[in-house]
Design a protein that fits this description.
Elements lengths: L3 E8 L4 H11 L6 E7 L5 H18 L4 E5 L3 H7 L5 E4 L3 H9 L19 H13 L14 E5 L5 H12 L3 E5 L2 H6 L13 E5 L2 H11 L8 H18 L3 E3 L5 H11 L9
Parallel strand pairs: 1-2, 1-3, 3-4, 5-6, 5-7, 7-8
Helix pairs in contact: 2-3, 5-6, 6-10, 8-9
Length: 274
């Protein structure tokens, strides 16, 4: 039986181009099976340490080193990733060779290999990401007809990052709709969603966790108060139950797990390499 090797793609951007280069190299090893994990938007040392923890956990569980491809501009952040219990391949290491030939870089912090489009899944992911951004909470005219899934929930339940992950990882067109207080009071689905009930998926958190998240954003506000948080969550769950909207308590879930559950439960088609 062929062993499965975990490959992590770590980037300070979407990770799509990191995957493009990594998969191009791995394609030379046709007799192996690779399981991909993308870790995008690693912007600083603190986030990098969290990524290292995840990589080390994979190494401990599988008793073998993950392969890690990295495209991060900041040197200090890259250095932290290199401490992981893994084979870390710094795709920026080639910059030394290029600088020796071409001279010093002239654009500091340029996007990592921004124009790479050799991966056939690249276009699907970019289109899906643009769709998610255009159909984010309250962002202009929403196009739910083109969406494969519409995430609903009260404010700060993780709708936006989940939509972006679904787009970047699977090429899924995901939109989201924030349940406002007046809609919760009415106990009815918002009119904009009535035609798309089969696409709806709800997110929910424990009151304690949601209050903590909102308190970090607006400390001392009614928005973050225990009473307001508990009311909104009760009303949201009642709405899900009344209209048969599938939902997930995301309190203890990673973005990867949330996205995977949504993909499975909604039987969504993958339009990109997973």
């Amino acid at each position: 039986m062929t062993a499965v090797r975990t490959v992590c793609f770590v980037s300070d951007r979407t990770g799509v181009t990191t995957e493009t280069l990594g998969h191009a190299l791995l394609a030379r090893f046709g007799g192996m099976i690779f399981e991909s994990v993308t870790m995008p938007f690693v912007l600083n040392v603190v986030q990098a340490r969290g990524v290292v923890g995840r990589i080390d956990a994979i190494a401990a569980e599988q008793q073998t080193k993950p392969i890690v491809f990295v495209t991060i501009v900041d040197q200090a952040t890259r250095d932290v990733i290199k401490e992981a219990r893994a084979l870390v391949i710094d795709l920026f290491a080639m910059m030394g060779l290029l600088e020796a030939e071409l001279g010093p870089q002239t654009v500091a912090g340029a996007p990592a290999m921004h124009g790479a489009r050799t991966d056939p899944t690249y276009a699907a992911r970019i289109d899906a990401t643009n769709f998610a951004l255009a159909n984010d909470d309250g962002a202009g005219a929403r196009d739910y007809r083109s969406a494969s899934v519409v995430l609903i929930g009260v404010s700060r339940t993780g709708k936006t990052p989940t939509c972006l992950y679904l787009a970047m990882q699977y090429g899924v067109f995901a939109a989201n709709y924030p349940l406002a207080e007046e809609e919760l009071e009415a106990g009815e689905l918002p009119r904009a969603l009535l035609l798309y009930r089969d696409k709806l998926y709800g997110l929910i958190l424990t009151a304690e966790r949601l209050q903590q998240i909102r308190g970090e954003r607006r400390p001392g506000s009614r928005y973050a108060s225990a009473q307001q948080v508990q009311y909104e969550l009760r009303a949201a769950q009642a709405l899900y139950d009344r209209f048969g909207v599938p939902y997930l308590d995301v309190t203890e879930c990673s973005i990867e797990e949330i996205a995977s559950r949504i993909m499975d439960e909604m039987a969504l088609e993958r339009h990109a390499r997973s």
